[in-house]
């Protein structure tokens, strides 16, 4: 509301209620009964797990309401027709979905913890749904090419591709400072800096004991990782 409209502007808004399981005090969410106090050091029973999931759903519900209010405000201010809105999350939230007594995020690379929403509202573009693999790395090339007028090809400055370019992708890359994770169409390959690896079935996140790594894909990934390696 404080923008004067005469200059382009950018806003980054972090709504972290789903990650922290925060709900508005005194407001009863639609999913009940919910867990009133979250103690990460307490073992979850079947009953408390159901209440925990309800608390998460209520946190997501209240976040959706805030997003709805934000989008409504853009319309009220006459900004909806010239504002690009990107809605996504930094990680998913697991509730022991993989069956290894793991909760929350940051403990594995399963789809339950890595798969996130990604919704882009782009004035002038018709609604569409992409079924190909995407990554957070794709957001920057999308904005750079279509919004900021950058003419350099995305591979010069990013490992991502434009979300508006329907190019097929055989894999996407995830990980942290210790691990690299390749999400293929059917399998997940996890390996560390020492070269140890394991291969898992993508949907169930269960190890595939007899599977062998796709060497052609590994070479592609290693080449990509070395493209942006920091120089001493």
Based on the model shown, name its key terms.
5 helices, two-stranded antiparallel ribbon, 8 strands, alpha+beta
Describe this structure in words.
The protein has five helices and eight strands. The protein is an alpha+beta fold. The mean pLDDT is 89. It has a four-stranded antiparallel beta sheet with strand order 5-6-7-8, with no helix packed on it. A two-stranded antiparallel sheet has the order 1-4. A two-stranded antiparallel sheet has the order 2-3. Strand 7 (187-192) and strand 8 form a beta hairpin. The relative contact order is 0.09.
Strand order in space, largest sheet: 5-6-7-8
Total DSSP E strands: 8
Order of helices and strands: HHEEEHEHEEEEH
Helical amount: 25-40%
Give the strand content: 5-15%
Secondary structure category: alpha+beta
Mean pLDDT figure: 89
Q: What low-confidence regions span 5 or more consecutive residues with pLDDT below 50?
A: none
The biggest beta sheet reads: 4 strands, antiparallel
Q: How far from one another are the termini?
A: 45 Å
> What Rg do the Cα atoms give?
21 Å
Shape: flat
Task: Note the total helix count.
Answer: 5
